[in-house]
Amino acid sequence: MNILDTVNQITRSFDQVESIVQALPFAVVLTNEKNEILYHNEMFEQMLGKKEIAYLLLQPLKLLLNQESLEFIQIGMNLHTEINGNPYVVRKEAAYVHGEKHYLYVFSSVEQLEQLLNINREKSVLQETVMEYAYDGNAIIEENESTKNEFKEQNKALFNLQDIIGDSSSLIKVKQETEKVALSDSSILLIGESGTGKELFAHSIHHASKRSSSSFVKVNCAGVPADLLATELFGSGYGEGSATATRISKVEAADGGTLFLDEIDELPLHIQVKLLDFLQETEVQNVGSSVTKKLGVRIVAATNKGLEDLVEEGEFSLDLYNRLNGVSIQIPNLIERKRDLTILVNHFIHKFNSLMQKQVKRLSKEAEEKLYQYQWPGNIRELESVLERAVNLVEGDLIEVTHLPDKLLTTTLNPIVPLADLIEKTEREALLTAIDQANGNRSKAAQLLNVSRTTFYEKLTKYDLV
């Protein structure tokens, strides 16, 4: 069944109430048993800033959201309600997109969505039922004793070292280092330019560790407003016993597993102090609470900036830096592993062929040359974007230069100068400089160049400088 058939089959089953779902002011998603997207409303498209149905449908929800760099603030929260005496549980999630909070409601089966929507076709009833959970601070949110286990099941490492593609020597070396350090419980600092795949390495570390059966929890330190970040990481003791107290903090959710702090350089100083305390004491005290909890969490942090410079500027804690930098891994950029370019190109062509139902086979020789000439400041993420654009534009099976963005077409390689010519040019310039500094005294010029008078005069003759 192709994507359009999937859309038609799903929408036909509740065509009379689809207008209600489309009118809701928050995202609604229907997934199958593999957590692949079968249906979504327009608010979900707006949330991601994408309009291509083919891009969104049949993608794993969690993988798609990770690709879109959405920072979850609530994951797997169960909303229990009754409509006409029938119990229903809908998964509620929320994420920050460009600093704005969005709600996402996930239905796990066609039947569940059909039943909920068909109970009453009056728009007002459905609106009131779901809107209560979205905007009423006193909404009844029920979280049973298995919340942590549910969270754990939903937050597994998505990638392992085999998913990091390439066979260049620099990449192989880093993968070998990663495999070794993953076995310990030491904190790890991943250092690399934007787009080099630091998050893939973080997932791989968790997957290869003794903690792989427990949660892998990601926090983008730049993606959550500073005034909320401390509570997100360490929880809140306010309102204990109320619905708002049922949400667990990130460090608690990662207990027994791995907490991945992406863009650690964006962590505010007052939260750096609290994180350092947590690393030293391995216990957490919720904001506003006197209760202390002992936890076992491994920290993996990532940065694309020089933390040493931030330490010198007083923007990053030296103690926290030393604590995190016990084991550091430098992720190579794409220029350092250009041997992997062909492998990565083939991988992304295959990926976008599947998503767009295309039959692209390869790049033309001229287009391939342009890819090798380009310096790739955005690294693998930029390469993926370029190839997504190209596969979108191509009509046949060959990606031509015309399918590449202009920034690649204006790139030219520096001309290769023969080594002999380069040596001669350098020697001639050295002779002239020495004679000038010796005020024309050639014996002194020879001494400055640390060569004998015989060799000096031979060089002068060779370059016609006598």
From TrEMBL:
<dbReference type="Pfam" id="PF25601">
    <property type="entry name" value="AAA_lid_14"/>
</dbReference>
<dbReference type="Pfam" id="PF13188">
    <property type="entry name" value="PAS_8"/>
</dbReference>
<dbReference type="Pfam" id="PF02954">
    <property type="entry name" value="HTH_8"/>
</dbReference>
<keyword id="KW-0067">ATP-binding</keyword>
<keyword id="KW-0804">Transcription</keyword>
<dbReference type="InterPro" id="IPR058031">
    <property type="entry name" value="AAA_lid_NorR"/>
</dbReference>
<dbReference type="GO" id="GO:0006355">
    <property type="term" value="P:regulation of DNA-templated transcription"/>
</dbReference>
<dbReference type="InterPro" id="IPR009057">
    <property type="entry name" value="Homeodomain-like_sf"/>
</dbReference>
<keyword id="KW-0547">Nucleotide-binding</keyword>
<dbReference type="InterPro" id="IPR002197">
    <property type="entry name" value="HTH_Fis"/>
</dbReference>
<dbReference type="InterPro" id="IPR025943">
    <property type="entry name" value="Sigma_54_int_dom_ATP-bd_2"/>
</dbReference>
<feature type="domain" description="Sigma-54 factor interaction">
    <location>
        <begin position="164"/>
        <end position="392"/>
    </location>
</feature>
<protein>
    <submittedName>
        <fullName>Transcriptional regulator</fullName>
    </submittedName>
</protein>
<dbReference type="Pfam" id="PF00158">
    <property type="entry name" value="Sigma54_activat"/>
</dbReference>
<dbReference type="GO" id="GO:0005524">
    <property type="term" value="F:ATP binding"/>
</dbReference>
<dbReference type="GO" id="GO:0043565">
    <property type="term" value="F:sequence-specific DNA binding"/>
</dbReference>
<dbReference type="InterPro" id="IPR000014">
    <property type="entry name" value="PAS"/>
</dbReference>
<dbReference type="InterPro" id="IPR027417">
    <property type="entry name" value="P-loop_NTPase"/>
</dbReference>
<dbReference type="InterPro" id="IPR002078">
    <property type="entry name" value="Sigma_54_int"/>
</dbReference>
<dbReference type="InterPro" id="IPR025662">
    <property type="entry name" value="Sigma_54_int_dom_ATP-bd_1"/>
</dbReference>
<keyword id="KW-0805">Transcription regulation</keyword>
<dbReference type="InterPro" id="IPR003593">
    <property type="entry name" value="AAA+_ATPase"/>
</dbReference>
